């Protein structure tokens, strides 16, 4: 059964990041999820047949919904008996106050922040309405979170403009106290990626991963976890990677928009809708023809993957990062980087032994 992403303010945001996949939509209009829709959503999630109920609060910028909105979230969740709720929020951190931080701490919210490496690389793309960089504001928000004993993870977006600075970006994040780090290669499925000035190529992503790995080894900090490294190291040790980008399907996620409409993962935009949470339960949607057709398409594996040594680990990669290249099914655009990075890890035999503790502790 899936985890639920809730895009509670639609595309509304206080920043105007140059690469944002929502830039083609309406980022300037306030459309906060209504109390009625929120109540229906919480009840629908609580009805899922799973012991842990995972909610991921997204935007736009989700804190624009207001602190009272999230107080109502935890109130409604508490009314659902037997629910073991896990809340995560992904924020640009620029609006974080001590009230927000205390709330997250009191209610055990996991917090992820968006920081694009160094101040220079961050401010190049993550700008506000006045086209000014947001790094200082974001790091002030991080400091407020840490003062309340909330230790945020970080997502760093890699575009064509910063892809050559992997080592510097990783070291800056570590020097600024981040130990749970994820890098997202930008590949925009909301528009035509081939015409997107920010999309990262396979060869660029390959070099980026190598640069980050080499810097990670130099840093030599057992507490620093980099998702892309940990997932690949897991496979070299015969373990199953946890991230959905190694599962070859989008069954891990459902996205609920501000109006209750339900879509696949937020990376895929809105071309496919499974219905509306106000009209149908998640169980009904998952049994519906639109979901079954979508799930079938995402599980298709192109011919070139059939004999690949990484087939049972890669599963044709993230569904949002596939393109039609004339094969029997759309193919993962970062196939080459996975093969090259895995080979790099295999060749680092001496290093891998000393780094095994990273995945053991993950």
Automatic annotation (TrEMBL):
Taxonomic superkingdom: Bacteria
The keyword Nucleus appears for this protein: no
Gene3D superfamilies: Aldolase class I
GO molecular function: iron-sulfur cluster binding; metal ion binding; oxidoreductase activity
Keyword flag Iron-sulfur: yes
Domain Radical SAM core: 1-218
Reported cofactor(s): [4Fe-4S] cluster
Keywords: Iron, Iron-sulfur, Metal-binding, S-adenosyl-L-methionine
InterPro entries (alphabetical): 4Fe4S-binding_SPASM_dom (IPR023885), Aldolase_TIM (IPR013785), rSAM (IPR007197), rSAM_sf (IPR058240), Sulphatase_maturase_rSAM (IPR023867)
Similarity comment: Belongs to the radical SAM superfamily. Anaerobic sulfatase-maturating enzyme family.
NCBIfam families linked to this entry: rSAM_more_4Fe4S
Protein known as: Radical SAM core domain-containing protein
């Amino acid at each position: 059964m899936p985890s639920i992403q809730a895009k509670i303010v639609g595309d509304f945001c206080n920043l105007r990041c140059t690469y944002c996949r929502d830039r083609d939509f309406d980022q300037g209009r306030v459309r906060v999820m209504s109390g009625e829709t929120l109540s229906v959503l919480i009840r629908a999630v609580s009805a899922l047949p799973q012991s842990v109920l995972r909610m991921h609060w997204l935007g736009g910028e989700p804190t624009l919904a207001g602190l009272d909105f999230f107080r109502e979230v935890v109130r409604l969740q508490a009314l659902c008996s037997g629910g073991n709720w896990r809340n995560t929020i992904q924020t640009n951190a620029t609006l974080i106050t001590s009230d927000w931080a205390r709330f997250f701490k009191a209610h055990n919210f996991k917090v992820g922040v968006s920081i694009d490496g160094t101040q220079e690389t961050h401010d190049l793309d993550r700008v506000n309405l006045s086209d000014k960089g947001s790094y200082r504001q974001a790091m002030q928000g991080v400091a407020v979170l840490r003062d309340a004993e909330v230790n945020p993870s970080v997502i760093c977006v890699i575009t064509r403009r910063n892809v050559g600075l992997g080592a510097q970006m990783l070291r800056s994040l570590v020097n600024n106290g981040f130990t749970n780090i994820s890098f997202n290669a930008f590949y925009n499925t909301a528009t035509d990626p081939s015409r997107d000035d920010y999309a990262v190529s396979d060869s660029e992503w390959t070099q980026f991963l190598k640069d980050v790995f080499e810097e990670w080894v130099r840093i030599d900090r057992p507490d620093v976890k980099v998702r892309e490294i940990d997932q690949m190291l897991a496979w070299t040790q015969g373990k199953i990677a946890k991230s959905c980008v190694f599962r070859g399907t989008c069954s891990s996620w459902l996205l609920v928009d501000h109006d209750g409409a339900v879509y696949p993962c937020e990376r895929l935009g809105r071309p496919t809708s499974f219905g509306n949470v106000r009209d149908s339960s998640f169980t009904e949607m998952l049994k519906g023809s639109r979901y079954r057709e979508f799930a079938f398409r995402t599980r298709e594996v192109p011919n070139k993957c059939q004999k690949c040594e990484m087939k049972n680990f890669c599963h044709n990669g993230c569904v949002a990062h596939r393109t039609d290249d004339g094969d029997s099914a759309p193919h993962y655009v970062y196939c080459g980087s996975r093969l090259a990075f895995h080979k790099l890890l295999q060749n680092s035999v001496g290093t891998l032994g000393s780094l095994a503790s990273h995945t053991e502790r993950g």
